[in-house]
């Protein structure tokens, strides 16, 4: 009997000691990151004498663990996205940085100058406001560029962190697999804790999925399906230079054992902090930079074209106020050697520029295709413009494309199949410059003056004078001459009666005759089939023989007719392409302020969405943590109760041993 008591007592003491060790270990690691609560379970002996084999295991629910990783990825994504978005939102919500304020100040100066066109100081204020507006464009674009560079730096940092976790998981897999799955060499539980914690930290960087291998390893995959940790190996994330834009970091996978094995990553479902950086760049940063470039180019082009239609304070035809840079396209790595593309804004086409990058492909020896791409680099269906090219040594213009080439002109060299990414809007807001700093060059006056002869008998009056082109005429008899004048001017318009007008030059040569079917004398030159770069109408009813004299507006410095048109650009729908598929001149048009406001609204909307998403994902993560901790977390109250309970069982077990010893001593005494 004493022998049975000894066996039972010894096993009870050992079991209680193990339970005390497990409980003590739980208490000691309550603050250890990634530690999972352990529990020891025992089996009774087959013959019912003593405690059998004990097994210590981790209290973890695999489903809860996967849920925690998923919610960790979602929260890390929304938190990172919100942090980045808040910086840009604060930047553009500050009134001191407002581009709209700068544009309004510029047009206010035009209004002031129109009140007294001869005052040089008023014109100087236009130059000053123009320079201040360009400085503001440059500052804001540079700040957005800084954010882009910061994104690249963060990608490098987070990729290094992710690679560290991937290698750690792969190494722990090897250690765990070396123990096997049998009972003879149980896997140290702290290795499983370390691996789960490394996987959880990796889930902060990217959204992941896991599978259990037969040898005890954990296989880790991205949510998009690419492998990160495989049996007996792992991949590394690689932040590589983009193709074709080397300044744009792109993510790829590289096999650790063979750096030549590289796989592309589908970033659409990347998740985590890395996914947030990519999404922020595509959804906020790139659209903001593109919109800034679109507004800067369309504004400068509109002011240039209208100023060229006027007469400056020197009595000469106006010129451009702003300069445009030449943008270089990025050739793809697969292009032929020496391929290149350059482009710039085509004069008068700035309103047709979309807020998109363009992809130019040499599709045949006589053809180039220009396509708009979305923020993810995919070609927008229906955006292709096919341009026949007779001579690649000459610039490709809107005229070659039938009147629309997204506002640019290109010069391309290369072989069939070569492709280029054209991204002018990324730098445009920083590169538009002043073409003049002379206040005299502001062309507030109209270059044309039309006077009716004092002896006219009818009440016909000049109306709706519109100047459309002051380029020196290519035809010998019509149009403007540089720097100030009309070819063979002044001209005379004579009403012949019968709703007909005759146009003569200064030498009496007939330029054309306008015949109207009724007394609606609109656009005389167009009706006469003559293109001279301007046109006008006659209101009222003239008498036969009434004449009107058309001449260059020499000495008309107090004229503000073109200045009013310059000021009117503030509210005109000068941005005719809010997206790549909208038709120029269609209903999808906006003013400069409306275009800028849509950009600021996009930033605010995306930031607010991110704020709501972050709050929701934080609530889900806290719920998952509580669910996980309810089973796997260490509770001091529960462990303290267990400690007392196991201490009592230990003491009771020692009493069994003591009783066994007493019985044994009694038996020895009885037989002596």
UniProtKB/TrEMBL annotation:
Residues 6-35 form the Flagellar basal body rod protein N-terminal domain. Residues 632-669 form the Flagellar basal-body/hook protein C-terminal domain. It is found in: Bacterial flagellum; Secreted. Its main location: other. Residues 86-322 form the Flagellar hook-associated protein FlgK helical domain. Keywords: Bacterial flagellum, Cell projection, Cilium, Flagellum, Secreted. Coiled coil: none annotated. It comes from the Bacteria. Belongs to the flagella basal body rod proteins family. NCBIfam families: flgK_ends (TIGR02492). This is Flagellar hook-associated protein 1. It comes from Alkalimonas cellulosilytica. The gene is flgK.
């Amino acid at each position: 009997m004493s022998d049975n008591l000894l066996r039972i007592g010894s096993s009870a003491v050992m079991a209680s000691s193990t339970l005390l060790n497990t409980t003590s270990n739980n208490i000691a690691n309550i603050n250890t990151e990634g530690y999972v609560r352990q529990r020891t379970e025992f089996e009774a002996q087959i013959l019912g004498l003593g405690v059998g084999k004990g097994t210590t295991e981790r209290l973890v629910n695999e489903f809860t663990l996967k849920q925690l990783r998923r919610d960790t990825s979602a929260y890390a994504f929304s938190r990172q996205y919100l942090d980045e978005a808040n910086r840009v939102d604060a930047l553009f919500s500050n009134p001191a940085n407002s581009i709209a304020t700068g544009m309004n100040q510029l047009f206010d100066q035009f209004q002031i100058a129109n009140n007294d066109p001869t005052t040089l100081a008023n014109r100087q204020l236009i130059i000053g406001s123009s320079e201040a507006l360009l400085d503001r464009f440059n500052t804001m674009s540079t700040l957005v560029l800084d954010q882009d560079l910061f994104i690249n730096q963060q990608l490098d940092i987070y990729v290094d962190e992710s690679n560290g976790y991937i290698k750690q998981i792969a190494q722990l897999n090897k250690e765990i697999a070396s123990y096997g799955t049998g009972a003879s060499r149980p896997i140290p539980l702290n290795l499983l804790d370390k691996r789960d914690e490394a996987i959880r930290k990796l889930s902060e960087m990217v959204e992941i999925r896991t599978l259990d291998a037969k040898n005890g390893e954990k296989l880790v995959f991205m949510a998009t399906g690419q492998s990160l940790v495989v049996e007996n190996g792992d991949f590394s994330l690689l932040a590589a230079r983009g193709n074709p834009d080397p300044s744009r970091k792109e993510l790829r996978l590289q096999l650790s054992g063979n750096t030549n094995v590289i796989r592309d990553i589908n970033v659409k479902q990347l998740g985590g902090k890395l996914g947030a950086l990519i999404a922020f760049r595509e959804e906020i940063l790139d659209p903001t930079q593109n919109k800034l470039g679109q507004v800067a180019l369309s504004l400068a082009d509109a002011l240039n074209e209208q100023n060229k239609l006027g007469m400056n304070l020197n009595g000469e035809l106006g010129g451009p106020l702003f300069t445009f840079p030449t943008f270089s396209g990025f050739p793809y790595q697969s292009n032929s050697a020496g391929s290149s593309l350059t482009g710039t804004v085509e004069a008068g086409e700035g309103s047709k520029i979309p807020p998109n990058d363009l992809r130019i492909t040499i599709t045949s020896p006589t053809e180039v295709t220009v396509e708009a791409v979305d923020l993810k680099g995919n070609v927008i269906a229906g955006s292709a413009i096919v341009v026949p090219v007779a001579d690649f040594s000459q610039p490709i213009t809107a005229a070659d494309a039938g009147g629309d080439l997204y506002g640019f002109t290109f010069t391309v060299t290369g072989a069939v199949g070569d492709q280029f990414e054209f991204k002018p809007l990324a730098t445009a807001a920083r590169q538009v410059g002043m073409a003049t700093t002379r206040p005299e060059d502001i062309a507030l006056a109209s270059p044309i003056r039309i006077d009716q002869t004092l002896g006219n008998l009818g009440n016909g009056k000049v109306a709706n004078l519109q100047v459309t082109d002051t380029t020196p005429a290519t035809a010998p008899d019509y149009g403007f001459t540089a720097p100030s004048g009309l070819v063979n001017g002044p001209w005379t318009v004579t009403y012949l009666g019968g709703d007909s007008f005759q146009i003569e030059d200064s030498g009496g040569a007939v330029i054309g005759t306008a015949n109207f079917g009724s007394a609606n004398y609109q656009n005389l030159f167009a009706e006469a089939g003559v293109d001279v770069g301007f046109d006008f109408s006659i209101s009222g009813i003239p008498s036969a023989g009434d004449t009107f004299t058309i001449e260059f507006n020499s000495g008309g410095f107090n004229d503000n007719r073109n200045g009013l048109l310059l000021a009117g650009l503030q509210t005109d729908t000068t941005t005719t392409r809010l997206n790549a598929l909208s038709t120029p001149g269609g209903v999808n048009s906006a003013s400069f302020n409306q275009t800028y406001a849509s950009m600021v609204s996009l930033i605010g909307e995306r930031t607010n969405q991110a704020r709501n998403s972050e709050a929701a994902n934080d609530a889900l993560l806290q719920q998952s943590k509580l669910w996980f901790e309810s089973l796997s977390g260490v509770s001091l109250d529960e462990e303290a109760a267990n400690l007392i309970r196991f201490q009592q069982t230990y003491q009771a077990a020692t009493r069994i041993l003591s009783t066994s010893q007493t019985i044994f001593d009694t038996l020895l005494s009885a037989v002596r």
